[in-house]
Amino acid sequence: MTLVTQTSAQTSGESGPSRTVLVTGGSKGIGYRIAERLAQSGHRVAATYRSGEVPVGVLGVQCDVTDAAQVEAAFAQVESALGPVEVLVANAGITRDTLVMRMSDEDWDAVIATNLTGAFRVARRAARPMIRQRFGRIIFISSVVGQLGSAGQVNYAASKSGLVGMARSFARELGSRGVTANVVAPGFIETDMTAELSADLVAKYESQIPLGRLGSVDDIAETVAFLSSESARYITGALIPVDGGLGMGH
Asked: H/E element holding 192?
């Protein structure tokens, strides 16, 4: 478990109380920026990781969300250091892309175990103190692929689509206790993964996006920051696409 001291660049410029936040998969890409953004807002932020480093000012907790014992240990560490989790961002995810006729049971099981079962496991654990406190924000990070589908990503699309039903069920079960559950569905976002794509392929994707460009990790982080805030207190069970219009109508 590592904790890096906050820098002066981090401020609490947003209204509302400081909350204890846990972001899963916070060592790279979208998860890294979400954790960083919420820390900059003055929240007490922890992030799980399997490798790499979490942002400055964030409590790093090594955890594989497919392991129930590691999840329980991670929550215990966060609660001991920062207090009960009040905002959960279930972001940890993997891909095992291949065409369906070549997709093995292992490819399917690995993606579902991390992206869907792992999200359920951390949300279920986070819900306990949230119910007691009568306050909580659960935010699942899905994908436009969960609504549109994608050749070669049957496992990934199924896992990300499943998060919608999960969030809406959490919303119905926990709403009377002051706990909201929502889904953010990123489109094509500029990350290390998309940086490896060819210029021709990026141009093809951009031609399908009404706004004509890939999104940034900031676009996702700002949406999550809003859903974490007091301004989103009456929003629950929502699917919020952050995809430049790519998935509109789905």
From this structure: helix 192-195
Q: Which of 32, 156, 205, 234 is catalytic?
A: 156
156 part of the active site: yes
**pLDDT tens profile 3-35:** 443 433 334 446 689 999 999 999 999 999 999
Answer whether 0.90 is exceeded by the pTM: yes
Residue in the block written with tokens 């070669």: 152
In this prediction, residues 181-202 reach a mean pLDDT of 87
pLDDT tens sequence across 212-234: 999 999 999 999 999 999 999 99
What three-state secondary structure class fits 18?
coil
Distance CA 175, CA 179 (A): 5
* Start-to-end C-alpha separation, the chain: 41
Domains with residue ranges and CATH for the chain: 16-242 (3.40.50.720)
Pairing of strands 59-62, 87-90: unpaired
Contact 242, 186 (CB under 8 A): yes
The residue behind tokens 């989103």 is 232
